[in-house]
Amino acid sequence: MNLTVSLPMKGKETVELLTGYGENGVSFEFVEKTGMNYRFIAKGFSGKEEAAKLAKTLISSSDYGKVLYFSVSVDE
């Protein structure tokens, strides 16, 4: 499923954060950047809500995530 993270800065760090995650058979593969949108393929998730929730949790728990405005959306 496709996951899009929209954020105005810290894009490189967010790509590294999400693509570096690989636990319990789930992972994120970076596809492309268009403007402020970073598109990933979310693999191994049982549903799109699970993928969005994990991406939000990972970004929010990063050093910069607490002060960064971002959104996450998923489409199949």
List the helices and strands and how they pair.
Blueprint: E1 2-6, H1 11-19, E2 22-23, E3 26-34, E4 37-43, H2 48-60, E5 71-75
Antiparallel strand pairs: 1-4, 1-5, 2-3, 3-4
Count of individual helical segments: 2
In CATH, what is the class?
Answer: Alpha Beta
The N- and C-terminal alpha carbons lie at a distance of 4 Å
Strand content: 35-45%
What's the main sheet like? 5 strands, antiparallel
Tell me the number of structural domains: 1
Helix content: 25-40%
3D shape: globular
The main sheet orders its strands as: 2-3-4-1-5
Structural category: alpha+beta
Average pLDDT number? 95
CATH architecture identity: 2-Layer Sandwich
Q: What do we call the CATH topology?
A: Alpha-Beta Plaits
The helix/strand order is EHEEEHE
Low-confidence stretches: none
Gyration radius over CA: 11 Å
Number of strands: 5
Please explain how this structure is put together.
This protein has helices at residues 11-19, 48-60; strands at residues 2-6, 22-23, 26-34, 37-43, 71-75. It is of the alpha+beta class and 76 residues long. A five-stranded antiparallel β-sheet has the order 2-3-4-1-5. Strand 2 and strand 3 form a beta hairpin. It starts with a strand and ends with a strand. 21% of the residues are buried.
Could you give a short description of this structure?
The protein has helices spanning 11-19, 48-60; strands at 2-6, 22-23, 26-34, 37-43, 71-75. With 76 residues, the chain is α+β, with helices and mostly antiparallel strands. Strands 2-3-4-1-5 form a five-stranded antiparallel beta sheet.
